[in-house]
Every structure is written in C-alpha cells, then in structure tokens.
Design a protein that fits this description.
It is built from four helices and nine strands; from the N terminus they run E-E-H-H-E-H-E-H-E-E-E-E-E. It has a single domain, classed as C8orf32 fold (Roll), CATH 3.10.620. By secondary structure, it is of the alpha+beta class.
Length: 208
C-alpha cells in the first residue's frame, strides 16, 4: 500500500468499496539517496530499464535536469518539475501506450505517459521508481489515474507530474515497472471493444 503521511485520514468510496487513506501524500525534501548496496532486494527490479521506461537512454538528460540538487528526493522533485514545465497534461489524449522516449518528444501526454518519463529519469540516476495506478480524489475528469513512486530516504514516496501538489486521497490498485505490468486488462484472442467506463470516487464521513 502507498505510504500514509501525517495523522489526517480520509475515507473514500469507490466501486471497490470504502478505503481509508491519507488526505495527502508525504513530502520529504532532503530525503537522502539510498546507495544501491543498501537497497532492499524487492526494490532492485525497479532500477532496470523496462518496456516503456528506457532509463538507459536518459542518463545525460536526467543528470542535466537535476544539476545542483541534493541526491535523493530533491532530484525526483526536479524531474517532476521539468516534466510539468515541458509537457502539457492532457487527459484523454493518449489511446496508445507510448514509451518514455516517445513522450519526451511530445508536447502533451496523459498521466501514464508522464509517469513513464519520470520513472525513466529516476532510474537513470539509480533511484528505484515504479508505476502506480489507482484513484485520486477530486481528479477531473474522474478516471483511473497513474503516478509514480521513487525509493529515497529508506521508503517509497509519491510523485505526480500531473499535479502541482500532493493533496487528495489516493487509492492504489496496482504497482509495476511500467504500464505493461499494470494494464486495465490483458486480452487474448479477438479484440474486445470498450463501450463505456464510469468511475466515481467520493469522500465519506469517517466512522465515529
């Protein structure tokens, strides 16, 4: 489950039921870079290039973006700021899954694509990064959402290039190396046509 910060909690209601979560994600400016030999074994797969996150192609770009930043959380924040400043978040604009390399050549993208680019840049700096899909409170238009987490300071932290803050409850549904690991569905045989999808998330009063 995603890390919960502070003491404030929200209860969100989605089709999967009621979920208690933090009202905002933790921010940890200055959280240190974790040396590879000190990383937990389960984080190691998230250091490697993957199908949609070709981190081996982003070493120079990532180093340029984070120049002057303290290793760790501050580097991840610089990457997110770069993405937000250079690529416009445009919900509903990406029917095809594209890789970080392809996203980097575009002027607009969906949340999934922006997460791919953030993950690739973090991994290029030897920071484990993974994709998360789930629900975000107050997302407009409401839909499944994608963001990424990076392992710094001894734990996973949330980063979201689509937002200028980390307020709002998040309900994580799946974690993976990239979108190939966390697809809405995996299809075999004849193609199926998606006719409609309706997602609603609302805050509920916490239990007394």
């Amino acid at each position: 489950m995603p890390a919960l910060g502070g003491t404030t909690r929200a209860v969100l209601s989605a089709h999967l039921g009621n979920v208690e979560c933090a009202e905002s994600s933790d921010v940890a400016s200055g959280a240190h870079f974790v040396e590879i030999q000190q990383l937990p074994e389960e984080t190691l797969p998230f250091l490697l290039p993957s199908r949609f996150c070709e981190s081996d192609r982003f070493s120079q770009m990532a180093a340029s973006i984070v120049m002057g930043q303290a290793p760790g959380y501050d580097q991840c924040s610089a990457i997110v700021n770069y993405i937000r400043q250079t690529i416009r978040y445009t919900p509903g604009s990406g029917m095809d899954i594209v890789s970080a390399t392809e996203v980097n050549q575009r002027s607009d993208a969906v949340c999934r694509d922006l997460a791919h680019l953030g993950i690739a840049c973090c991994r290029a700096l030897s920071i484990p990064a993974r994709m998360v899909v789930g629900y975000l409170e107050d997302l407009q238009p409401m839909d499944l959402h994608a963001w990424f987490e990076a392992y710094v300071g001894g734990r996973w932290y949330t980063f979201d290039p689509t937002r200028d803050h980390l307020q709002g409850g998040r309900v994580a549904i799946a974690y993976g190396r990239d979108a190939a690991d966390v697809a809405i569905y995996t299809q075999f045989g004849d193609p199926a046509e998606l006719l409609a999808m309706n997602v609603t998330v609302q805050r509920m009063e916490p239990p007394v």
